[in-house]
Amino acid sequence: MPPAEADEDIAQMFDLSKKKKKKKKKKEETEKINVESDVSGVVVDPAADGGRQYACYTYKELLDRVVRILQENNPELSEKRRHTMKPPQLMRVGTKKTLWVNFQEICKMMRRNPEHVFQFFMAELGTEGSIDGTQRLVIRGKYVPKYIESLLRKYIVEYVTCQMCRSPNTTLTRDSVSRLYFIHCQDCGSSRSVAPIRAGFHAQTRADRRALRK
């Protein structure tokens, strides 16, 4: 074999260029596998030529993408609706009773059973009352509108407002087995149980002290 041909055969046997290309190709495949395994920070988009494009995102950027997609597909969720509630309208009935004139109207606005609202106020006020024929609430005792309004806010927070999205668009149902009340939000779909109605603080009046002495 001529020396020139022998040199070419030896050069082909020790040609390192192909080996370097193979190693480089294996390295690129390893990097792609590592990128695909990072699910929390990588978004894979199919390219037009059938290949793949990899884009890295931080956690905050991914959250922003999710919020943007939700707002685009559900524009009603991003709208802030302001709900107004009429203040309680009270009237004096004689010297020992208070009449809540728009009691039925407020119950309809909250979409709550008047009986449940009635039980709450009687427990919080520590008194007695009744609902007359025109669905007005008659309360024994003298009360100012601001005090009744503060109790109404307390009822709305506990038994009307959703704790997740702060929406008042909720329903109140009672479980027949556990006898617990549950609030179901019609906007975000969350639900929670509510505390049973308990008697609140009731200052002892002169009439109460007389009753205890008898």
TrEMBL record:
Keyword Protein biosynthesis assigned to the entry: answer is: yes
Q: Does the keyword Protein biosynthesis apply?
A: yes
Single GO term (MF): translation initiation factor binding
Look up the domain of life of the source: Eukaryota
Alphabetical UniProt keywords: Initiation factor, Protein biosynthesis
Stretches assigned to the Translation initiation factor IF2/IF5 domain: 80-191
Which residue ranges run through the membrane?
A: none
What the entry lists under Pfam families is as follows: eIF-5_eIF-2B (PF01873)
What Gene3D superfamilies does the record tag this protein with? 3.30.30.170
Return the SMART domains for the record. Answer: eIF2B_5
GO terms under cellular component: eukaryotic translation initiation factor 2 complex
Family annotation (SUPFAM superfamilies):
Translation initiation factor 2 beta, aIF2beta, N-terminal domain, Zinc-binding domain of translation initiation factor 2 beta
The entry sums up its family as follows: Belongs to the eIF-2-beta/eIF-5 family.
Name of protein: Translation initiation factor IF2/IF5 domain-containing protein
Give the organism, scientific name: Chrysophaeum taylorii
